[in-house]
Amino acid sequence: MVDMTEESSSSFINKQLLSNALLRDDIDTFRAEYMELHPYDQAQFYMLVKKEIRLNLYYYLSPQEMAEVFENLELEQNKYEELLAEMSPQYAADMLSHMYADDAVDVLNELKKEQVVSYLAIMDDESAQEIKDLLHYEEYTAGSIMTTEYIAIASNQTIRSAMYILKNEAPNAETIYYVYVVDDDKHLVGVISLRDLIVSHDDLMVSEVMSERVMSVSVGDDQESVARTMRDYDFLALPVVDFQGHLLGIITVDDIMDVMEEEASDDYSKLAGVTDIDAGDLNAMSAAKKRLPWLIVLLFLGLITANLIYRFEETLTEVAILAVFIPLISGMAGNTGTQALAVAVRGIATGESEKESKWKLVAREAGTGLITGLSCGLLILLAVTIWQKDVYLGVLVGISVFVSLFVATLAGSLVPLLMHKLKVDPAVASGPFITTINDIISILIYFGMASLFMGYLI
Fold this sequence. Notes:
MgtE N-terminal fold; transmembrane helix; 22 helices; cell membrane; magnesium; Mg_transptr_MgtE_intracell_dom; 3-stranded mixed beta sheet; 65% helix
């Protein structure tokens, strides 16, 4: 038996039955089993089979059925281009036109511009125009992740007529849990939940049942801000309006979950000093190109540290034991600075820092730096004094650790807050960057203190 899949699939997928049906070209058996699967499992099977088998799937599944599969794919960048190239251009265009507009835009954004133009040219006019309207919105904004497949009703109609509209438009809507109410000029004026529509009397007017206190976001709002709003209010969907209050689309919770994962991954990548932590399919050369820029910057910052140590060569020559404690002090400063950085970046990313004074956050971190610095300074003072039987050396190292930890903690919290104030992504203040900066600061502190204690150490 030929191994049809590259790895094990979900327990809900009858791999053997589907594989045998594909081998025998038994389309009836295959479709009977495959179409009973959850769309997620359909997508998993599609990605697990080899290319030559996927080519058969395009004959077994209609573009509309393949659209549902594509909506449930979780792929790395550039993978969409490879998969679409396996299909005929017309099949791919038809499939994209059957996808929800926001999902189709996500796929097209991964392609070259000439490919996007080609697919739009052979789509039906209505789908192409809908996708074009979304493509022009700036990436990472509410407009770029919204969908136009929503249900809107007028405020001056009855619940009976609203239910008629709902039943007719529900098959094409991405969600029906919220029905939005607009006036004659398409301004968003209210919202009705599906429950309220069902339990309300048929002859009541929509305006009598709807809630006028409807939360919305602007089409230009940052997607991270939209994600925080949906998290805070536990919405399943959120309407998107323009600057005049016209309803343009909605953002659903599944899209927000993707945004939250994307933003978290992006922040983690920057904290690690790499540009794309998710790029697992990159070869060694591509991965090196992504990491080299940061490493080169850090290399030259490291030369500053080396130059500082060189300038204190005389001090090290006279008291060689000082060199033993350089890694300890710089390492401690780097670690505590990274801890403070992580707290500050998380506060900014989750919006927690907006709910309290920035100075309160800095003061809290400064207090933390004082306590941790004092504790570690006293411990190392005792350890060095007992080890080297030199109280002055112990005091020197202890004070250096205390001051370095305090300054590093303060820098770790202030740098991302300053970057946020300057409209720069605070995650750019990555772990390796703040660690290298704190190395420089701690070396200056250590050798500065050593110069003061020199008379007692010789």
